[in-house]
Design goal:
The chain has helices spanning 4-8, 11-21, 26-33, 37-45, 52-61, 66-75, 93-106, 128-131, 136-139, 145-150, 162-180, 183-193, 235-238, 250-259, and strands spanning 111-114, 120-123, 159-160, 211-215, 218-228, 241-247. By secondary structure, the protein is of the alpha+beta class. It has two domains: 4-75, 434 Repressor (Amino-terminal Domain); 90-259, Beta-Lactamase, CATH 3.30.450.180.
Length: 260
């Protein structure tokens, strides 16, 4: 997303949109941010021009993603402060090394890295369990891992309790689309919701939703965990997520170790 939105919208309007997305009143945000409710109102209506520090402070309180914080700064007349480097740039060597270390540490269990749009960035060798038999067009870069998982020519035919897994994925995607305000995620949600497979009406019993997959003559059961760079100040790094699929039962762990 470029700063086109910011050039057409004032910083106050962007701020108000994020406040409403977080379901906060002006008074709620003013109290949490330690600012005057009157000044906040003036900023939102354009009667007062916020300082660079105020924009960043309010964006932090609202947990605005770094990409959108840059847009808010541009709309307020300031330069962006968060870099956006490609992973192959020299300055990102530390990030690449950390990603490679984490992916290798999870083997023989599947782990992959995705960006904010759920496009595949990197994966360890065990992820081949999920991509085996998928249509080639689903694996062409940038491969979208959610599309791959729910598409009838992808992993979906091998997922047991597909309706339950679809419920989990679609709920998670809808929440991320709302929290980030990313129209691309909303479009992806509409696309995936239209795919066949049904959607469970309620979550299953238990502490987490397992992913149960047929792999050859075996049923593998996984629980997923997500790792992010919590202190990232680069847009690319902040938008990376490492998702690992850990064995949900001893039989799965034994099968994966034997496979490796």
């Amino acid at each position: 997303m470029t700063s086109a939105l910011a050039s057409e919208t004032t910083a106050g309007e962007l701020l108000r949109g994020w406040r409403r997305r977080r379901r906060l009143s002006q008074l709620d945000l003013a109290v949490e941010a330690g600012v005057s409710a009157r000044h906040l109102s003036f900023v939102e209506t354009g009667r007062a021009r916020p300082s660079r520090e105020m924009v960043l402070h309010l964006a932090e309180q609202l947990e605005v993603p770094l990409r959108e914080r840059n847009e808010m700064l541009v709309a307020a007349g300031f330069a962006p402060v968060y870099g956006r480097r490609r992973l192959d740039e020299p300055d990102m060597g530390t990030v690449r090394a950390a990603v490679d270390l984490v992916l290798a540490a999870y083997e023989p269990f599947p782990a992959l890295v995705v960006d904010r749009s759920w496009n595949l960035v990197a994966a360890n060798r065990a992820v081949a369990l999920f991509t085996e038999g998928a249509a080639p067009f689903l694996l062409e870069p940038p491969a979208n891992v959610l599309r791959l998982s729910l598409h009838p020519e992808g992993l979906a035919p091998r997922i047991l309790d597909l309706a339950q897994w679809r419920r989990h994925v679609l709920h998670r995607l809808a929440r991320e689309a709302h929290l980030t305000g990313d129209p691309g995620l909303s479009a992806l949600h509409r696309e995936l919701a239209a795919l066949p497979g049904g959607t469970a009406a309620a979550p299953p019993n238990g502490i987490a939703v397992p992913l149960r997959v047929r792999w050859r003559d075996t049923v593998l059961s996984f629980l997923s965990t997500v790792t992010t760079f919590g202190t990232a100040i680069d847009v690319t790094a902040a938008e990376l997520s490492i998702e690992a699929f850990l064995p949900a039962d001893p039989a799965t762990a034994e099968a994966l170790r034997a496979r490796s």
